[in-house]
Sequence to fold (127 residues):
Amino acid sequence: METQFPFTPLGVQQWQDALYALPEAERLAEEAFISNSFKEWIIARFALDEDQQAYLNGMPGERIAFASEGVSFAVSHSLPVVLDKPEKPSEIHIFGAKLDELEKQFGVSSSAGISTYTGQFVARIRY
Fold:
């Protein structure tokens, strides 16, 4: 997958739509990219401005690992990845955005030895 998408809720949805339409081998390659090089994956897949790239590069390793695990788990089970990011208010001067919350909302149920995974991974950004 070579395409870069807008870093917006719609852009994340467009990435998922494109990803889940790929053959399994390419989806597995994307999952490995996410797991092994999360920062590089974000930069390769989404159009980030300089401030967003700087914020990403300054994030603590534990937070990067948490996001990487959540997104790769969602991808491996074809579950949604949600970016909850409001439009930047235009009427006031904003000094930047804050990654407010990363949330793994996953569940699993089993029946007759078959596991079914549900849920989503959510990243919330606030101004």
Summary: DSSP finds five helices and five strands in the chain. The radius of gyration is 15 Å. The chain has a mean pLDDT of 89. Residues 5-126 form one domain.
